[in-house]
Amino acid sequence: MRLGGRLAAAIEVLDDIRQRHRPAAEALKDWGISHRFAGGGDRAAIGNIVYDGLRRRRSAGWLLGDDTPRAVAFGALLLEWGRTPQSLNAALDGDRFAPPPLSETELQAIDAASAGDAPPEVQADAPDWCVPLLMESFGAEWVEESAGLAARPPLDIRVNTLKSERTKVLTELASTGAVPCALAPQGIRIAPIAGGGRHPNVQAEPAFQKGWFEVQDEGSQIAAELTAATPGQQVLDYCAGAGGKTLALSAMMQNHGQIYAHDAEKQRLAPIFDRLRRSENRNVQVISKPAELSALTGHMDLVVVDAPCTGSGTWRRRPDAKWRLARRQLDARKAEQAGILDTVREFVKPGGLLAYITCSVFEEENDGQIAVFRARHSNFVPVDHGMLWNAHFPGRQDAARMLENGIALSPARSGTDGFYFCALRRHA
Ligand SMILES: C[S@@+](CC[C@H](N)C(=O)[O-])C[C@H]1O[C@@H](n2cnc3c(N)ncnc32)[C@H](O)[C@@H]1O
């Protein structure tokens, strides 16, 4: 397929996402099934146009003076692929599978929009209702930070120290341009792809099959690192899901001590079993029934709550979620978080730690949630997060925001997905 055919396909997929309010990954998969002739390169390019367009939807709309799937797809190529209107029209010329080239009206709109600065909410590429939330979290830096959440993400890997080491994995992945992460001690990064390219399928590597590494955002690795789990501890990972944090904690504990991995949804835990086998984590018990947790009451050195949240910190990877999110979902997640915190506090032994993590950038789910928890339970007191950060990442105070109760990471500041971390010590 030439660019014109790929652009037409991206418009079709964006239209499907809009009409049927469905996730981008599903719409792309369906398109692939009904267009089996399309090769891997075509699928990657179409996916990139769709995801770029969704990340920069407002900017694309501003540029073309419209917010149709066509405007979003053309906008993606103009904003992210280094295309000019002229080079784009030249590439579409004579291609019978291409959509109609940019019209005179569209070219004039592009000229007009390019002549001035877009309003802040357009530069931020954020829904209007989220703007006050982003301002609350990022203050004067809210536009730059929100734009960071609309950029292409890197591919991050965590080396499994139970089976390998970073230099060995770097050698294995040398052809991919992989480099050590800036912060996470076992992190490896493959930079964001350009244009129509795609990240290598690292999970097809023999080193992955041997359990040498996992795919995990650097922010998630840092959150696990900040729990400071040590060999021999008793740890409850209460929202373990597919086990990303569980595996990281188990490696930090060198397979000594015990991790109880729980999740309210049994099917979310399903992938954990294969992952534990491949990575040779031997100190993890998976517990799906809440009743079976009662024996742990008051005995845990560390309880980790990787809480259900809006996921606003992961908008780079799931930009469609940014436009589907609604205020009522934020309120629902906040209620769940408060309920979970109230439940899990009983598992922490006196002197033990409760680590609360979200992949959201919204204050209400983060420091705000912890402030109201502390008002209800004064025996839980935040550790000194400045000291904690410096102990793990000396000289890198610039890479995180220290808040009243915890630590916030973000793409623009930290080079990671947006994450929040707070460790509370139980006194009595
Ligand atoms: C952010 S995800 C966890 C991701 C996982 N820890 C990882 O690192 O891969 C949040 C998880 O919380 C679970 N969850 C939601 N409500 C819960 C509850 N009341 N009790 C326990 N788990 C819950 C969800 O099923 C979901 O798997």
UniProtKB/TrEMBL annotation:
InterPro entries noted in UniProt: MeTrfase_RsmB-F_NOP2_cat, MeTrfase_RsmB-F_NOP2_dom, RCMT, RsmB-like_ferredoxin, SAM-dependent_MTases_sf
GO molecular function: RNA binding; RNA methyltransferase activity
UniProt KW Transmembrane helix keyword: no
Ranges where the SAM-dependent MTase RsmB/NOP-type domain occurs: 145-427
A UniProt-annotated Pfam family: RsmF-B_ferredox
Source organism, top-level taxon: Bacteria
Binding site for S-adenosyl-L-methionine: D263, D306
Protein name according to UniProt: MFS transporter
Organism: Manganibacter manganicus
